[in-house]
Each structure stands twice: as structure tokens, then as C-alpha cells.
């Protein structure tokens, strides 16, 4: 199932993921600033709309509005510790999931639009990372992964590969919310998992 990759919120326990199935929620989350706010809350929250404005360069009023929209669909919530009108917000989960297939045309259309928006966001970040690679130490440049593989798989085999990758990565997830588990030298790393049916390469070997 599609899953937005994001660092976990560092304070407290929270659900691993929230699943969006309402077309209105899917469309709401596809907004670039809202995706940015959720990502920042997961990596640097809780924080107020004022702090959100400082981090994003948007106005406080705009951040406050979009945080309320996110709260409406369960992606963020008010955090304790606010004073006066300066209420902090926090993410409700570490990841966001949505259907990869639905018989409901409205859900399917909204989910595909969200997937496209997330893909665009991923590759903007990959491009920035590539532009700044020259600043990295040698060991990080050698460790980073950039490549692709063309495999001939059944749907079941592809799903199995995805499950295997999830199992491989899961032991490292707790480090996001518990800094004491991180070994010396550990830094935040984004791992993208993208596998799709290649409809451009001609099939061969079939009788």
C-alpha cells in the first residue's frame, strides 16, 4: 500500500500510521504545504503555527489554517503545553497510508492524485540531495544508493518483495523516537520504495 516516508515525531509514543480513505481527506492532504507541515511535525514537532511559519516561510495565518484542516482529517492534533493562543500541534502518526486500489471511483481518483503529488515531492527532495552531494563526507557518498532494477515478477512476488523490505527496515524505526537507540554517527536517511509495472519495455520470451 502507498506509504509516505517520513521521520517519526521525536517525543512520545504514537501510532505507526494513519490510513486515509475519505476522498476529501486524500484531496486535502495532497496540498504541498500540508504535506510539508505534517513532515515537519513528525521530525521536529510539536510546534505552534508561529514556529511553523518560521520553518516554512509562510504566514502564521496560513499555517494556522492548514493545521486546522489537517486536524479535521486526523493527521495532526493539539499537543499539551500550550499557553494562551499559542497552542502547539503534533502529528498523530509516523506514516500516512492510503488505498492503492478502490472500487469507489472518487477514492481511486483522489488516491492516485495524492500518489502523484507525493511522487513529485519525493523527486524534488532527491534532486536537492543530488545537488548537495558534494558536501557530504566520503563515507556517506559511498553509502548512498542510486540505481534501479528491471525484474520479471508476478503480482504476488512483487507484494512479497515489498513485505520483505518492510521487515528489513522495521528494526530501525524505533530509533526515530528514541535517540538512545541510535549508534554514534547515525543520521536521518530517507529510503524510497517505488516499484511499478513497466509498460514501456516490450515483453520478450513469450510464445
From TrEMBL:
SUPFAM superfamilies: Winged helix' DNA-binding domain. This is Helix-turn-helix domain-containing protein. The lineage of its organism: Bacteria, Bacillati, Actinomycetota, Actinomycetes, Kitasatosporales. It comes from Streptomyces zaomyceticus. Pfam families: HTH_20.
Amino acid at each position: 500500500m502507498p506509504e509516505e516516508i517520513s521521520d517519526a515525531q521525536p517525543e512520545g509514543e504514537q501510532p505507526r500510521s494513519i490510513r486515509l480513505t475519505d476522498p476529501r481527506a486524500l484531496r486535502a492532504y495532497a496540498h504541498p504545504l500540508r504535506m510539508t507541515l505534517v513532515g515537519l511535525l513528525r521530525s521536529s514537532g510539536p510546534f505552534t503555527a508561529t514556529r511553523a511559519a518560521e520553518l516554512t516561510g509562510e504566514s502564521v495565518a496560513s499555517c494556522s489554517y492548514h493545521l486546522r484542516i489537517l486536524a479535521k482529517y486526523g493527521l495532526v492534533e493539539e499537543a499539551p503545553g500550550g499557553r494562551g493562543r499559542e497552542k502547539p500541534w503534533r502529528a498523530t502518526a509516523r506514516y500516512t497510508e492510503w488505498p492503492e486500489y478502490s472500487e469507489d471511483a472518487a477514492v481511486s481518483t483522489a488516491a492516485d492524485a495524492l500518489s502523484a503529488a507525493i511522487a513529485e515531492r519525493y523527486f524534488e527532495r532527491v534532486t536537492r540531495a543530488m545537488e548537495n552531494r558534494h558536501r557530504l563526507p566520503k563515507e556517506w557518498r559511498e553509502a548512498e544508493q542510486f540505481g534501479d532494477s528491471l525484474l520479471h515478477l508476478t503480482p504476488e512476488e512483487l507484494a512479497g518483495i515489498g513485505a520483505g523490505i518492510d521487515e528489513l527496515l522495521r528494526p530501525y524505526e524505533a530509533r526515530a523516537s528514541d535517540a538512545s537507540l541510535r549508534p554514534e554517527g547515525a543520521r536521518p536517511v530517507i529510503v524510497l520504495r517505488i516499484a511499478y509495472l513497466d509498460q514501456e519495455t516490450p515483453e520478450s520470451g513469450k510464445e
